[in-house]
């Protein structure tokens, strides 16, 4: 067991470039991680990692040993996953990351049903609108809107395509009026999601007609729920996926605008690391999430 732990500490340290971060991910103290690494080097009679106060790097022996030890740990993990894949109840901790809005609307409400089916499966949700690194953050599954991953070892599975809408509170409309054409948006106070590909430019279509509008923000923010609350307070016009504001529109708290014009659909994907055998916990979670979203969403919000 100590020899396996030594390998895990070495590989994780090499992957993260930090002994302290490796210790955090593996759930041990810095001192314990350092002892395991030193014991490994003593047992091999070789220096694997050189380090100073600012950084660490692998020796030539360390680089060669990393390839072999990484393969060994991957094979062990895949062997365990192969056994777990045949068990009735996948178990262990699954680390998921998504935006706050998606976690509130879909992940949190579905967990009781998922837990009832798989009581030994625990879910950790890291809410973040930035894209967390799978290895550094220890992520198993990420819900993301980008179409492609820069890392070719990441599998991208489409969850669905979402409609986006323009909407504002009745109080804002009473004060500023409704935009009648896309060009009118340039004169309005816009609430902008600043992580969009081109947040200050809108492209709208109506049949064969296309319009591009440059907009300015009364607020720009990296979280959809903050933008939603600002819109409810009457600050301006938001541009958000329909699933986030559907309830507010139905209740009359927000009014959809320029309903004859369409914004580009937003694609939502599930991403996870490519492995020879997909761990059972990832497989059951992703399958269940796709089914849950399609069962609970209206056709006008999502398109599979």
Automatic annotation (TrEMBL):
Keywords: DNA-binding, Transcription, Transcription regulation. InterPro entries: LysR-type_TF_proteobact-type, LysR_HTH_N, LysR_subst-bd, WH-like_DNA-bd_sf, WH_DNA-bd_sf. PROSITE patterns: HTH_LYSR. One of its GO terms (biological process) is DNA-templated transcription. GO terms for molecular function: DNA-binding transcription factor activity; sequence-specific DNA binding. Residues 1-59 form the HTH lysR-type domain. Signal peptide: none annotated. Pfam families: HTH_1 (PF00126), LysR_substrate (PF03466). Belongs to the LysR transcriptional regulatory family. This is LysR family transcriptional regulator. It comes from Xanthobacter autotrophicus.
């Amino acid at each position: 067991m100590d020899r396996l732990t030594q390998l895990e500490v070495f590989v994780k340290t090499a992957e993260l470039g930090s002994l302290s971060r490796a210790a955090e991910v593996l759930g041990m103290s810095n001192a314990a991680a350092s002892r395991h690494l030193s014991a490994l080097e003593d047992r091999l009679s070789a220096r694997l990692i050189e380090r100073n106060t600012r950084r660490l790097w692998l020796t030539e022996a360390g680089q060669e040993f990393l390839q072999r030890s990484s393969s060994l740990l991957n094979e062990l993990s895949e062997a365990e996953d192969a056994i777990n894949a045949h068990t009735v109840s996948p178990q262990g901790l699954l680390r998921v990351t998504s935006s706050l809005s998606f976690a509130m609307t879909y992940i949190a409400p579905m967990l009781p049903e998922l837990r009832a089916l798989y009581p030994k499966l625990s879910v950790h949700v890291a809410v973040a609108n930035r894209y967390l690194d799978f290895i550094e953050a220890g992520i198993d599954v990420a819900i993301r809107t980008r179409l492609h991953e820069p890392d070719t070892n990441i599998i991208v599975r489409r969850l669905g395509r979402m409609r986006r809408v323009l909407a504002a509170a009745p109080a804002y409309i009473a004060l500023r009026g409704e935009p009648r054409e896309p060009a009118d948006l340039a004169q309005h106070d816009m609430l902008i999601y600043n992580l969009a590909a081109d947040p200050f430019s809108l492209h709208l279509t109506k049949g064969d007609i296309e319009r591009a509008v440059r907009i300015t923000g009364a607020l720009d923010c990296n979280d959809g729920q903050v933008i939603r609350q600002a819109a409810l307070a009457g600050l301006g016009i938001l541009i958000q996926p329909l699933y986030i504001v559907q309830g507010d529109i139905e209740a009359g708290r927000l009014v959809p605008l320029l309903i004859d014009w369409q914004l580009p659909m937003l694609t939502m994907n599930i991403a996870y690391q490519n492995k020879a055998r997909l761990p059972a916990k990832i497989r059951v979670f992703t399958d269940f999430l796709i089914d849950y979203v399609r069962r609970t969403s209206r056709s006008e919000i999502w398109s599979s």
